Structure formats: C-alpha cells, structure tokens
Amino acid sequence: MNGRSDDSSLAAIVDSEDRIYVESLSPGPERDAVVASLLRYRSAEALHVGDPLPAVTVRRADDLGSIELTALVRSRPLLLVFGSFT
Length: 86
What we know:
The structure is a single chain. The chain is elongated and about 50 Å long. The longest helix is centred in the middle third of the chain and has 13 residues. The chain is mainly alpha-helical and 86 residues long. It has a two-stranded antiparallel sheet.
C-alpha cells in the first residue's frame, strides 16, 4: 500500500477519529495493516448499529443444539462477542 490511494478510499468510510489515528501513524507495515483492516471491516456492506439482525443460526454454548439469533432478541438488544475459549 502506498498510503495515498488507500487514504482516499478510507476517508469515505471511516469516522474522523479513525482518520486521525491513521494519519498519526508513520508509513510502514503497521499503518498498512490498520488501513487494510479499516477498509475491510468498515465497508459499506458491513453491519452497522441499528441494522436489522441477519437470519443466522448459531450453536449454543451449552451444547444443546443451535438457535436462531432472532429468538434471542425479542425486544431487547443483543451483543455478540467472538473469540476463542480454548
């Protein structure tokens, strides 16, 4: 990444705090990794706060099978945390 072309793409999809952080980084591998991550995960097709919940079936943590996410939501918010528990 040369920084310049990515900066113009980045400006269209990130908020001012992200942009300030990226601009504070020196050109190099760390900055390239941050820009690549922002471009991938802050893309227009990514989910955003307030988007409708996609129809997804997930495995239950108690090994009792699977469940639709919509069954967990009802009228309250849902927070999904992804990580490794091993």
